């Protein structure tokens, strides 16, 4: 069996909840050794979050496979000293505290990189390490709102669209953390030095608007501000939108190019709709209204059959467990069932998208399960383990 790309990389994960743990999950799935540092009392907060089965959180289970757990009390001198010794043996540290928390504890980036100059220290926070709001509390919805993502989605004249997923947490936090860590690792090959990686979830969320906002900036005074539901890719074009069917399901019509939308119009028996499909104002709105009326006449299954094999950029909007039955996703091997010996039952894992080898699928660790193993490997004596409560 060939090794995974990140085999040999060692990561200390002090993060909690979603953004940091998803980033380190990807690293673990790519072969890195990820050791999760948790508080002795309770650990990562997500361990207690429902839904629970066999007293295990499904959210925690989904984010923390292939990791080990070490408990350290960083509020105690012994815990802080242990962390300083541990970082000498690691390549990457990830944390998601508010800016300044690690410094107040005496184990900030400058202290830890003095112990290990090759350490890549990645801090994920809501608004970043600088700026007037760097200490402000927030959650994904706040970051998406602040970055303009919410204001850009939804019907023209209507409310912003409530996101169904955590765009700021994963898109702005996890994925940009991964990019920063991997870039710093590449740089370290050249310089021999680590780096501080400052990840702001709000900054990262703003990146989703890059094409639109960069165009607006380029146009300057001649350009128009971004508007909800009025532009080509956010609902302004009839050929690129969501349409309700007779059974209250939805179709995603992404026939942006005229060659695709011409085919849609032919299948609908209304080729004349192409003429005004890209027109601004009332003409385009009439085409959209007509499509709304037409798609509402029949249930989703009818339209799936009508457009079967057409290659015209039309897909049903998957809901509920639809994605679990999708033959394309199944063929990609995204859902893998394993036997969890601790739980005594089979569990299906959702794999991370980037796979470059045979990813192991080890169950998430119990709180502190690997404390002695990790500390002993780092040279801690039995007496030192006892002082740390292990």
> What best-fitting shape do the alpha-carbon axes yield?
elongated
CATH level-two architecture of the largest domain: 3-Layer(aba) Sandwich
Separation, N- and C-terminal Cα atoms: 35 Å
Protein structure class: alpha/beta
Strand order of the largest sheet: 5-2-1-6-7-8
The Cα radius of gyration reads 25 Å
What's the CATH topology name of the largest domain? Rossmann fold
Q: Main sheet?
A: 6 strands, parallel
| Average pLDDT level | 95
Keywords: Transferase
InterPro entries: CoA-transferase_III, CoA-Trfase_fam_III, CoA-Trfase_III_dom3_sf, CoA-Trfase_III_dom_1_sf
GO molecular function, one term: transferase activity
Protein name: CoA transferase
Protein architecture, described:
The protein has 390 residues and is of the alpha/beta class. It folds into 2 domains: 10-206 and 360-388, Rossmann fold (3-Layer(aba) Sandwich); 245-328, formyl-coa transferase, domain 3. It contains 17 helices and 13 strands. The chain has helices spanning 19-29, 58-63, 77-86, 101-105, 109-115, 140-146, 149-152, 167-191, 201-206, 210-219, 258-267, 282-295, 300-306, 322-325, 327-331, 371-377, 382-387; strands at residues 10-13, 33-38, 52-53, 56-57, 67-71, 92-95, 120-125, 196-200, 240-244, 250-254, 314-316, 335-340, 345-350. The strands form 4 sheets. Strands 5-2-1-6-7-8 form a 6-stranded parallel β-sheet, sandwiched between helices. Strand 9 (240-244) and strand 10 (250-254) form a beta hairpin. The longest helix has 25 residues, at 167-191. The chain is elongated. The mean pLDDT is 95.
């Amino acid at each position: 069996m060939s090794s995974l790309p990140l085999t040999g990389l060692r990561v200390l994960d002090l993060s909690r909840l979603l953004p940091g743990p998803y980033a380190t999950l990807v690293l673990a799935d790519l072969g890195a050794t990820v050791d999760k540092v948790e508080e002795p009392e309770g650990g990562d907060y997500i361990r207690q979050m429902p839904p629970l089965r066999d007293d295990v959180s499904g959210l925690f289970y989904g984010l923390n496979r292939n990791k080990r757990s070490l408990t350290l009390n960083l509020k105690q001198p012994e815990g802080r000293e242990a962390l300083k010794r541990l970082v000498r043996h690691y390549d990457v540290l990830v944390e998601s505290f508010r800016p300044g928390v690690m410094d107040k504890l005496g184990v900030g980036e400058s202290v830890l990189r003095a112990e290990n100059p090759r350490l890549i220290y990645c801090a994920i926070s809501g608004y970043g390490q600088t700026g007037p709001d760097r200490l402000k509390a927030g959650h994904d919805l706040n970051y998406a709102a602040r970055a303009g993502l919410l204001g850009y989605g939804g019907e023209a004249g209507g409310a912003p669209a409530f996101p169904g997923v955590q765009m700021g947490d994963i898109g702005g936090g996890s994925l940009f953390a991964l990019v920063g860590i991997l870039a710093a690792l590449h740089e370290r090959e050249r310089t021999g030095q680590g780096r501080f990686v400052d990840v702001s979830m709000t900054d990262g969320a703003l990146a989703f608007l890059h094409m639109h906002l960069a165009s607006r900036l380029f146009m300057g005074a001649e350009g128009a501000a971004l508007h909800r539901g009025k532009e080509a890719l956010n609902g302004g074009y009839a050929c690129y939108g969501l349409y309700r069917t007779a059974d209250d399901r939805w179709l995603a019509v992404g026939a942006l190019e005229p060659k695709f939308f011409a085919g849609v119009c032919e299948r609908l028996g209304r080729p004349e709709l192409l003429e005004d499909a890209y027109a601004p104002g009332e003409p385009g709105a009439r085409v959209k209204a007509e499509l709304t009326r037409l798609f509402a006449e029949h249930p989703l299954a009818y339209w799936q059959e009508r457009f079967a094999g057409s290659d015209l950029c039309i897909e049903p909007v998957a809901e509920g467990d639809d994605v679990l039955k999708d033959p394309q996703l199944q063929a990609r091997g995204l859902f893998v069932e394993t036997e969890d010996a601790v739980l005594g039952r089979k569990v299906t894992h959702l794999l991370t998208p980037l796979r470059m080898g045979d990813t192991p699928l080890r169950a998430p660790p119990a709180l502190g399960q690997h404390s002695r193993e990790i500390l002993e490997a780092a040279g801690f004596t039995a007496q030192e383990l006892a002082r740390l409560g292990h």
